[in-house]
Design brief:
Layout: H1 3-26, H2 29-65
Helix pairs in contact: 1-2
Length: 66
């Protein structure tokens, strides 16, 4: 993932944190939960990228040994 993608994920995370905080302050559980979901999106995307990278490394290693 490029720098633009990482920056976008950071912005999404911060928006989610702000949304969660607003929900907490106002007592709005739906808004709080929405904020938590927004914060999870970047983490899932990063995990997906790590899995893809690990799969690519495994394929390269298999080809080298092959």
């Amino acid at each position: 993932m490029g720098i633009d993608g990482k920056a976008k994920l950071t912005v999404i995370h911060h928006i989610g944190a702000a949304t969660e905080g607003t929900g907490t302050v106002t007592g709005n559980e739906d808004l709080k939960r929405d904020g938590q979901h927004e914060q999870a999106r970047p983490k899932l995307s990063e995990a997906r990228d790590r899995v893809k990278d690990a799969a690519d490394i495994g394929a390269i290693r298999d080809a080298a040994e092959g």
